[in-house]
TrEMBL record:
Name of a matching Pfam family: VWA
Name of this chain's protein: VWA domain-containing protein
Ranges of compositional bias, category Pro residues: 411-421
Biased composition (Basic residues): 396-409
UniProt-annotated stretches for the region Disordered: 396-421
Native species: Tautonia sociabilis
Domain VWFA, residue spans: 44-217
PROSITE patterns reported for this sequence: VWFA
InterPro entries xref list: CLCR (IPR051266), VWF_A (IPR002035), vWFA_dom_sf (IPR036465)
Length: 421
């Protein structure tokens, strides 16, 4: 297979000869776009849909049915699919099988109606059971769970649920979670997605569901690498002082990156502390490793960065900075501030949350205006407006989701449009 392109971009293209300095390196990993339509791995998709009573509000169940129908329509006949619903009871309305009888599957989806409470864990566990019943050895096996509420029936402990999700992931079944509206437990759904090597989405408007399902399915179909890891090896004397992304580490200390999706760059920002250097030379080495989309083979690709020149601090301080690195620093520091703002709300400290959102706004407003910076500025303003209106639940969910998306180098959705008057 074609290897991803790895580019290491320094904030400044020099280091100091007479002082220790902080230098940001942007590791830009771009999976290749295929020259021709690829033969994608088979999909084994377990759709798990919340049908609790709250799904009746705002036509949420209608949009959920529409999105599930869209997902089924995109599958090939050699793909596998199951459909599980849950309220206080868990029911599989379509057992795991090839996606051959699509009209029959669509009829079953159309009959889903809201009922009672929310046995989220039970629904997810049944989805895993369905996917594992015919797990595709060299395919993509994924539970896609949608919920608008809190887990209040069955197992509800987030740590215990996350451990089970991690176990399923190690057995080859990943988990993507979708939180709909403002009443679900975002910490639980994010933890499940992290543990399940999947994605987490926050959907404010039910009308966005079909587009989101399309994003997830296209990502699955265009996956070119899984179990992606990045090892960082600084040169002697150089210290990795920070990784600005919010990434977990594997047992051997490597950064755990999202799956490689064709044409979608993964951006990781590393901050180095570099002591005085008498001459130009290497500062840091990297090793990217990943499994192919069908598993079985582990691939590796090295990269490194060497400073092209050294100079006195007085000169270094006035050097131009690379715009893309500055942009990523602003987005990631704003993401950190938004996460802290959400945590402040969770503990009831509204004043601290307000101050942290202002910090986030300052980071993006101080950066050169790009499309991404302008989008983030609008999103932060919208979150601040929700805070001032006293909608603390929406404020927390928005802030956490923006932080998650940027920290994991995932695309952020556009701001939802206000309803037509």
């Amino acid at each position: 297979m074609q290897s991803p392109h790895i580019e290491v971009i320094a904030r400044k293209s020099a280091i100091c000869s007479d002082a220790t300095v902080s230098l940001d390196l942007l590791v830009k990993i771009t999976p290749p776009r295929p020259d021709r339509p690829p033969t994608r791995p088979r999909l084994n998709l377990a759709l798990v849909l919340d049908r609790s009573g709250s799904m009746a509000a705002s036509r949420k169940i209608d949009y959920a049915r529409e999105a599930a129908s869209f997902a089924v329509a995109q599958l090939l006949t050699e793909d596998l699919v199951s459909i599980t619903t849950f309220d206080d009871q868990v029911e599989t309305i379509a057992e795991n099988a090839p996606a051959v009888d699509k009209p029959g599957l669509l009829r079953k989806i159309a009959l889903i109606t809201p009922r009672s409470s929310t046995n989220l864990h039970g629904g997810w566990a049944e989805g895993v059971r369905q996917a594992e019943a015919h797990r595709i050895e060299r395919g993509l096996n994924r539970v896609l769970l949608l919920s608008d509420g809190l887990a209040n029936v069955g197992l509800t402990d987030p740590n215990a649920i996350a451990l089970e999700v991690k176990s399923a992931s190690l057995r080859g079944v990943g988990t993507t979670t979708i939180g709909l509206g403002d009443d679900y437990n975002e910490d639980l759904l994010e933890a499940m997605a992290r543990a399940g090597d999947g994605n987490y989405y926050y959907v404010e408007s039910p009308a966005m569901l079909t587009d989101l399902f399309q994003t997830e399915l296209l990502g699955l179909m265009a996956t070119v690498g899984r179990s992606v890891r990045l090892a960082i090896e600084p040169s002697p004397g150089v210290v990795v002082s920070d990784v600005l992304n919010d990434l977990q580490r594997s047992a051997d200390g490597r950064l755990m990156l999202p799956n490689l999706v064709a044409g979608m760059p993964v951006l990781v920002l590393i901050r180095l502390s570099v002591p005085p250097q008498a001459r130009p030379g290497p500062l840091c080495a990297f090793l990217l490793s990943w499994d192919g989309p069908e598993g079985g083979i582990r691939f590796e690709r090295p990269a490194s960065y060497a400073a092209p020149e050294t100079m006195p601090l007085e000169w270094w301080a006035g050097m131009p900075e690379h715009a893309e690195v500055v942009e990523q620093e602003a987005l990631l520091m704003a993401a950190r501030a938004q996460k802290e703002a959400a945590l402040a709300i969770d503990r009831g400290d509204i004043a601290a949350s307000r101050a942290l959102l202002k910090d986030a706004a300052r980071w993006v407003n101080a950066a050169p205006c790009t499309f991404a910076i302008a989008e983030e500025s609008r999103a932060i303003s919208s979150t601040e407006a929700a805070l001032e209106m006293g909608d603390y639940t929406k404020t927390s969910k928005r802030a956490k989701y923006r932080s998650y998306a940027h920290g994991h180098s995932r695309p952020t959705p556009p701001e939802p449009k206000p309803p037509a008057s």
